[in-house]
């Protein structure tokens, strides 16, 4: 019976996630860069949540008008008796809700928008859909690029909660203006793409029918379900007791805040110093794909506010060492195919479409499958490609082979030393002490866990010959 319950719950999560995944056609071009937001005020958190929980605050701020509607009631019935789902999703969401609700409040947008990541991803930062939509907002690569989200070998802004939230809210603001300040149409367009909503409106106008969301019968089924599901969640979060739902206990000590840093660091090494699990810190900062923050310029990591002071102190004292990481460009790889006769494939790079190109020809030039080329670029058989357009070409087999060779060459250039473990040592501290990555240290040794690290044991380290 227990196995059956687990299987049923897993199926439920899959249904909820798949029904929320964003359609790949929702990209909107924007000339504006991603807006830079300062760290949220800790005073705001203390003042706002001194006498109310984040759930109570959200409920009070949710003022989007609703109507008695059988489609909404159907979704409310769908959510009834799913306490385990609400426990899990509210536990994941609660730490993010403090910062997220502040951003929405600042922009004077409907607080109901905080519910979109629940539908889209159940607040899973690392999730990727079959349409290659990623992160809590399920943003596809083209939309992310249009709204300033960097995507390269080391970092994917779609998995970065701070960056992706800024992009998603920018997109929703654009859609709100596009659809004459109608939030239901804007949210529907977020799900299906503005083109489909415009087509549905045009068809209704031609037939002399109303053009509000509820009257658009030609929208995709998932979009017709999307708005009722959002408004069903609004009803439940505004009055959970009425629907027999218990949300996770809210504690403002869980609140996450972005903390600015100006040097690259290894997340696992930082976790070791500030008393948080490496897995947890990586999950909070899933945008850093390799577990290392940006090589250049000011950036941030997302932390529980209670750890901010300790983190900053550890950075300033050098306990969290500067990571050695190569700079990466804003795009997966700036290499493009300049010669149409060149048969050498790009590795996780771009191809610039030339006159006379077809998908089959481009796939042949780059030694990849047409199906993969379509998947990486969210293309269908009906997609139009034009000269000058750039396509992502991700030849992973070649990339992996080149990476393995590069790693071997890198080790050959270093000096091998044998380090004797001392009292208080951890793998993270040993890596910091020698200026190497924790992942590298683990790859050079059979010891993969601090629990197996014993006083006096020997650890192999390859250090730069000039250090």
Automatic annotation (TrEMBL):
<feature type="signal peptide">
    <location>
        <begin position="1"/>
        <end position="27"/>
    </location>
</feature>
<dbReference type="InterPro" id="IPR008258">
    <property type="entry name" value="Transglycosylase_SLT_dom_1"/>
</dbReference>
<feature type="domain" description="LysM">
    <location>
        <begin position="349"/>
        <end position="393"/>
    </location>
</feature>
<dbReference type="InterPro" id="IPR023346">
    <property type="entry name" value="Lysozyme-like_dom_sf"/>
</dbReference>
<dbReference type="InterPro" id="IPR036779">
    <property type="entry name" value="LysM_dom_sf"/>
</dbReference>
<feature type="domain" description="LysM">
    <location>
        <begin position="417"/>
        <end position="461"/>
    </location>
</feature>
<feature type="region of interest" description="Disordered">
    <location>
        <begin position="325"/>
        <end position="351"/>
    </location>
</feature>
<dbReference type="Pfam" id="PF01464">
    <property type="entry name" value="SLT"/>
</dbReference>
<dbReference type="InterPro" id="IPR018392">
    <property type="entry name" value="LysM"/>
</dbReference>
<keyword id="KW-0732">Signal</keyword>
<feature type="compositionally biased region" description="Polar residues">
    <location>
        <begin position="326"/>
        <end position="351"/>
    </location>
</feature>
<dbReference type="Pfam" id="PF01476">
    <property type="entry name" value="LysM"/>
</dbReference>
<protein>
    <submittedName>
        <fullName>Membrane-bound lytic murein transglycosylase D</fullName>
    </submittedName>
</protein>
């Amino acid at each position: 019976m227990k196995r059956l319950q687990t299987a049923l719950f897993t199926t439920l999560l899959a249904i909820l996630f798949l029904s929320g995944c964003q359609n790949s056609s929702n990209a909107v071009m924007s000339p504006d860069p991603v807006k830079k937001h300062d760290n949220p005020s800790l005073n705001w958190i203390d003042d706002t949540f001194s006498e109310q929980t984040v759930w109570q605050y959200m409920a009070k701020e949710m003022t989007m008008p609703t109507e008695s509607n059988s489609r909404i009631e159907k979704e409310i019935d769908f959510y009834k008796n799913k306490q385990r789902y609400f426990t899990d999703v509210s536990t994941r969401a609660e730490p993010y809700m403090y910062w997220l609700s502040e951003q929405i409040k600042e922009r004077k947008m409907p607080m109901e928008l905080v519910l979109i990541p629940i539908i889209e991803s159940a607040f899973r930062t690392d999730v990727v859909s079959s349409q290659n939509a990623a992160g809590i907002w399920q943003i596809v690569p083209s939309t992310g690029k249009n709204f300033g989200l960097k995507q390269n070998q080391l970092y994917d802004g779609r998995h970065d909660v701070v960056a992706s939230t800024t992009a998603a809210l920018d997109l929703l603001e654009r859609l709100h203006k596009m659809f004459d300040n109608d939030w239901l149409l804007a949210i529907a367009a977020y799900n299906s793409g503005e083109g489909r909503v415009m087509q549905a409106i045009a068809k209704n106008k031609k037939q002399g029918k109303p053009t509000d969301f509820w009257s658009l019968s030609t929208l995709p089924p998932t979009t017709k379900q999307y708005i009722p599901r959002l408004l069903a969640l609004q009803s439940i979060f505004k009055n959970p007791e009425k629907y027999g739902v218990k949300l996770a206990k809210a504690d403002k000590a869980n609140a996450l805040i972005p903390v600015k840093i100006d040097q690259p660091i290894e997340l696992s090494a930082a976790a070791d110093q500030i008393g948080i699990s490496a897995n947890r810190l990586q999950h909070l900062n899933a945008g850093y794909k390799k577990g290392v923050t940006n090589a250049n310029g000011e950036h941030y990591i997302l932390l529980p506010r209670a750890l901010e002071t300790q983190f900053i102190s550890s950075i300033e004292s050098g306990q969290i060492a500067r990571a050695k990481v190569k700079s990466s460009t804003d795009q997966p790889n700036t290499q493009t195919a300049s010669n149409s006769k060149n048969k050498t494939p790009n590795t996780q790079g771009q191809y610039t479409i030339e006159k006379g190109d077809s998908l089959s020809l481009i796939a042949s030039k780059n030694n990849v499958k047409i199906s993969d080329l379509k998947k990486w670029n969210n293309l269908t058989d009906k997609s139009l490609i034009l000269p000058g357009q750039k396509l992502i070409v991700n030849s992973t087999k070649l990339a992996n082979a080149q990476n393995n060779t590069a790693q071997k060459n890198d080790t050959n250039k270093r000096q091998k030393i044998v380090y004797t473990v001392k009292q208080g040592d951890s793998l993270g501290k040993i890596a910091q002490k020698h200026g190497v990555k924790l992942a590298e240290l683990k790859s050079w040794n059979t010891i993969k866990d601090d629990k197996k690290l014993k006083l006096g044991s020997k650890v192999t380290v390859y250090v730069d010959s000039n250090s």
